[in-house]
Amino acid sequence: MENLFVSMAAGIRSLLGSGGLSEWATDFLVMFLKLGAILVYILVSALWLVYMERKVSAYMQCRIGPNRVGPMGLLQTTADIGKLISKEFIIPKDADKKLFLLGPILIFMPPLAVFAVAPFGKGMVAIDMNIGVYYFLALASLSTVIIWMAGWASNNKYSLIGSMRVVAQMVSYEMPLILSIVGVIILTGTLNMSDIIHAQENVWFIFLQPLGFLIYLIAAVAETNRAPFDLVEGESEIICGPFTEYSGMGFAMFFLAEYANVVLVSVMATTLFLGGWLAPFGLTFIPSWIWFLLKVYLMIFLFMWFRWTYPRVRVDQLMEFGWKVLVPLSIANIFVTGIGKYLYHSLGW
Amino acid sequence: MQVKGKGLLKGLGITLKRFFKPKVTVQYPEQRLPLPDRFYGKPEFYYDKCIACNMCVNACPNKVIKLETEAVDKKKVVTRYDFDQQYCLFCGLCQEACPKDAIKFSKDFELTQYNRPDIKIKFVKPEQVEQRKEEIRKAAAEKAAAEAAKAAQEAALKPETADKEGT
Amino acid sequence: MTLKTEEFLLNLGPQHPSTHGVFRILLTLDGETVVKAVPIPGYLHRGIEKLAESRTYTQVIPYTDRLDYLAGMLMNWGYVHAVEKLMNVEVPERAEYIRVIVGELARIASHLVATGAYAADVGGLTGFIYTFRDREDIMDLFEMISGARLTPSYMRVGGVADDIPDGFIDKCRQFLDYFPTALDEYNGLITGNEIFQARTKNVAIISAEKAIEMSLSGPVLRASGVNYDLRKARPYSVYDRFDFEVPVGSKGDCFDRYYLRLLEMEQSAKIIRHALDQLPEGPIKGKVPKVIKPTAGEAYAEIESSKGIMGTYVVSDGSTNPYRVHFRRPSFVNLGYLDEMLKGWKIADAIAILGSIDIVLGEVDA
Q: Is B164 annotated as a binding residue?
C-alpha cells in the first residue's frame, strides 16, 4: 500500500523503457501521466468537496443535505455539473467578451500549476522543486488577477465592487500569509517541500510555530475567499461579486476553482505545519499518502466549520485586521523565531 | 475586533455539537408529518348535502365559487359548482358559512397541476345532475300519480273539490 | 497626484438576496461608502386597502394575513380590533386569552425570522436555519388552531374562529419549555460572536429624540431607550393582567435592535405561559350579528405588532362593506428614517441596517 503509487510510476517507467523508448521520451510520458493524475485528483476532489461542504453545512444546520442522487447523494455534484453544462452561457451585451470568456478558462490554471510541487506522500511528488514554497506563493496569488479580470469584464457594478474587493483583500492577506511561512523557513532553512516535511520528523511545526499556524490559517481563509472573509462573493451584499454575471459552466468553473484553492491551501498547511505525510505516534502501517489526505481533509473540514459558524466581516474591518493585527503579529513571530533559533544554536542544544 | 476569541470558540462549539445531534428534516414524499384536522387543503364538495343557499358564494372574499342552479319542479338542482382553486385564499370562510357542511376542506395539500385549466375543480358531474333531476321528477311523478289517484278517488265522491286539487 | 474619483449609482434591489422581498434602494456610492440613499418601496403593492372596500367586513380578514405575512395573527387582530371598536362589541374573555396566546406566538415567530434573517444578512447562514427550525414549532401550533401555517385568518369580529383544539395546550407548553435552550443557542452562535458584534455595535445609532420625532415604533423605538410598548402604555385586550417587562435598549444601534428582539421573545414566552395558566372557560365569540353592518361612523384602533404599532382605521357608511380601511403599517413608518441612517456607512452596513429595522415587504407596500 505504502508504495502503491510510487511503484505504479516505476512500473510504467520500466514498461515504457522495455518498449524501446528513449529515456527522454519515457521521462516526458511519465511526467505527463503524473500531472494527468494530479489533474484528475483535483477535479474529483473539487466535486467531492462541493458534496462535503453541502453535507457538513447540512449536518451543522440540523439538516441531512443531499441524499437523493446516488447512494447518500454522492452523485449530487455530478448531477449539478451536468445541469450547469446543459445551461446557456449568457454573455452580457456590454461585457468585454474576450476577457469575460477568458476568466473561467484561466481560473483553474494557478491551482493546477501549484499542485505539481505538492508532496502527496513519501516520494510522491511530481516535481521536487527546490523552491517549492516560493513557487506556491508566486502562483497562488495569480488567481487575484483572473478574478479581477472576470469581474471587470462583466461590466456590472456588483462585479466591479467584488473584484475591487478581491484585489484589496488578496494584497492585504498575501502579506501575513507569506510572513507566517517565513517562520517555518527560518527553522528549516529550505524552500523545498520534501525537505520541510523531513525536518518535521521529530516535532511538527504547528507546535513550534503555533502563532505562525494561526496566522496562516486566518490568511488562508481570506486567500480562498471563504467566510468569515468571503467579502468577494458576499452573497447578502453584492450577490455573487465578480461571478454575478456568469451562468452555466462559467459559474461552475469559478465554483470548482474555489474548492481547488481550498485544497491547495490545506495541502500547504499540511506540508508546512502538520508534518505532511509523516505518520503521527509511529502509526506507519497506514500509508503516508493516506495520512497526507487525512490531514488535508481535516484542514478542509476546519475551513468549512468556520464558514458555517461565522458571519462576514466588513471591508474596513478586514483591512484593519489584516494590516494592524496580522502583519505586526507575523513580523513579531519572525522576530521571535529568529531569536529562538539563534539561542538554540548558540546554546548548542 | 480585539483578540477575544471566547465568543468565536463558543460558536464553533455549538455548530460542532449540532453536527452530531439528530437532524430535524423530514424526508417528504416518503415521510409525512401528520396534519391537524383543521387543515385547509383541497376542497371537497358533497353534492347531496348542498341546498344551493349561496352562502358560500357570498362568504368567499375572492369569488372563487360559482354556483348555478336549475329549477326542476319548483326544486333547486345544483347544476354547477365550480371551485376556481387558483384564486382561493384557503381562509375557510365558505366552510364556516355553509349550514349543511356541504363544502369542506380535506387534508390533501398537493394541489399542483401541469395545466392551468386543470386547477379549476368542477365538482358537479352531469350524470349527478341528471340523476338528481330524475329523482325529483320521479318523486314528483309518483307524488302526482298518488295525488291523481287520490283525487280520482275523491272525485268520485266529491266532484266539486277535485277541480281545485287537480292542477 | 490626486486621483479623480467619481460617485456611482447602485440599484440595491428590487431583486437582491437581502432586501427581505422586493425592496429597492438607490444608493449613491463613493467606493464602498454610501453617500446618498433613496428607498423606493412599492414593488409588492397589491392595494389591500382598496380591495377591502369591495369586501364585507369579515372578508377583509384573510387579506390582513397578507400584510405582515410573518405575523398574520397580529394583523388579523389589528383589523378586528378596529371593527370591534366601531361596532362596540364585547369580546368574551376566553377569546381575548386565545388572542393573546396566538398573538404572542406570532410575535415570537416574527422575531425569530427577524433574528435569523439578520444573522443571514451579516453572513452567518447557520443562525438562519436554527431560528427557522424553531419557528416551525409555532407554525405547527398555528396549523393546529387555525388550519394554516402562514395565513391563519383566525380572528373574527367579536372573537376567534374556533376554540383551542385538543393537544394544543400541551404542545404549546412543550414549546415554551424548550424555547429557552433555543435562545441560548442563538445567543451563543450569533449574539456572542465577536465578528457579529463588530459588525453591528455602534452602527447606525438612532437617538431617542430622533426616534420619537420620526414616529418609529416597536423594537426599533425601544432599542433607542424609549420605553413605549402599547401593551403596557395603553393596555388593550387583557394585557393588563399579565406580568411582563418591556425590554429597552441603551444605545439604539443595530446590535440593540437585534438583541431587543431576543429579549422580547423571552417576555412573550412568559406572557403565553401566564395566559395558558389563566385561560378561562366560556364562549369564544361575542354577540355579533351574522351579517356585520356597523352604523355609519369611524374607528381607529392600535395594537402592538411585532414590528411596531399597527393601527387600523375603519370608516363605515352603514353598508356591509367598509367605506374605507387604512392600515398604519409599522415597518413602513419605520423605514422613513432609512435614508438618513444609511448615509456614511458601507454597503455591507446598508444591508445590516436594513435588516435591523426588520421590514416585511407585504406590510411596507400593503
A: no
Contact C119 A311 (CB under 8 A): yes
Domain ranges of chain A: 88-347
Pairing state of beta strands B120-122 and C8-12?
unpaired
Segment A250-303, tens digit of pLDDT: 888 888 888 888 888 888 888 888 887 777 776 777 777 888 888 888 889 988
Q: Which domains does chain B have, with CATH numbers?
A: 37-156 (3.30.70.3270)
Output C311 or A13, whichever has higher pLDDT.
C311
Q: Is C145 on the interface with B (CB under 8 A)?
A: yes
Is residue C17 a part of any domain in this protein?
no
For A309, which of B15, B21, B24 is closest by C-beta distance?
B15
- Measured in whole angstroms, the distance separating CA C300 from the mean position of its chain's CA atoms is 19
CB under 8 Å to C70, separation ≥6 — which residues? C109, C110, C113, C150, C306, C360
Q: What CATH number is associated with residue C212?
A: 1.10.645.10
- Which residues in chain C have Cβ-Cβ distances shorter than 8 Å to B92? 147, 153, 161
| Option in C60, C147, C188 nearest B40 (CB) | C147
Asked whether residue C120 is assigned to any structural domain, the reply reads yes
Whole-prediction pTM: 0.88
C25 domain residue, yes or no: no
The model's pLDDT over B14-68, given as tens digits with 9 standing for 90+, comes to 888 888 888 888 888 888 888 888 888 888 888 888 888 888 888 888 888 888 8
Structural domain span for residue C204? 44-365
Residue B50 assigned as binding residue: yes
Q: State ipTM.
A: 0.83
Residue spans of beta strands (DSSP E) within chain A: none
Expressed in percent and rounded to 5, the helix, strand and coil fractions of chain B are 45, 15, 40
Cβ of A62 within 8 Å of Cβ of B15? The answer is: no
For chain C, the domain total comes to: 1
